[in-house]
Amino acid sequence: MFLTTLIDTKSLSSHVGDPGFVIVDCRYTLDDEGWGEREYRTRHIPGAAYAHLGHDLAGTKTGTNGRHPLPDADSLRRTFSRLGISDGVQVVAYDQDTGIYASRLWWLLRWFGHDAVAVLDGGFAKWMSESRPTSSGDEAPAAREFGGGPREDWTMNADQVAAIAGTPGWRVVDARAPERYLGTTEPIDKVAGHIPGAANHFYKWNLNDDGTFRSPEDIRAKVHDAVGAVAPSHLVSYCGSGVTACHNLLALEHAGLPGAKLYPGSWSEWSSDPSRPVEKP
Q: Which positions are annotated as active-site residues?
């Protein structure tokens, strides 16, 4: 049976070297875009390939489409093929700890019809805390042919979000920290605030203190506190650039609340157009 949400370190350790598994290192930081790749070459889970958020898991920026726009379909297929992903392969994505970058790869693969993908719970930090084996240098899995395509109803663009924001039965959910949602600070984008009518469910509320995911019951309770009794299929997740929003989508799946959509452009796209409304308490 394929894994579609999370995998623990013990389970993954038993599949290192398994030809039916593809392991992808997604470590990254916003303030040093080369950090993750350097860390990967120094030490990584044996057999893992590296995927860079800006180069592999995001597309070309135009200045109005957000900081991490979705890659075009052909580019994404080439990336997945290079990583050795095809039908019947179990993918495991990991990053440094919380899963915010690994969840981007998790969502992209599922968006393209590859459901057999899981995020390593606790990431590389948990792997290292348990003194598990590592490798160094570059590793390149054998390329495979990836033939999936996007599920068009999994995303909403800015106009669609504007049409449903604040309407009964729908809820836009902001994954950013409360102070960014409230507009009291904005360290990255030029405009502070949030999409009118949006609720706030900070992605870190999905996690325990050690960076592993909370129980499905805990997450369901926290999501209900944020959005009320809205059907998961009528939730639209966004953040600053469409990355941590995927963490909330993973948490919803883990909690048994599937079907929420992603607004890929997120706040960085929304706030780039001065004609779009901005809400601050």
A: 239
